[in-house]
Amino acid sequence: MATTPFPALSISSHSLSSPLKFLPARTSRIPSPPGALTAPRTLIFPGLPSCRSIGRRSRNIGRISAEAATNREPMVPPYNVLITGSTKGIGYSLAKEFLIAGDNVIVCSRSADRVESAVQNLKQEFGEHCVWGTVCDVREGKDVKALVSFARDKLNYIDIWINNAGSNAYSYKPLAETTDDDLMEVVATNTLGLMICCREAINMMLNQPRGGHIFNIDGAGSDGRPTPRFAAYGATKRSVVHLTKSLQAELQMQDVKNVMVHNLSPGMVTTDLLMSGANTKQAKFFINILAEPPEVVAEYLVRCIRSVPARQSMKPTYIKFLTGLKAYSQIFSRLAFGARRNRYLIED
Question: What residue ranges are annotated as transmembrane (predicted)?
Answer without folding.
Answer: none
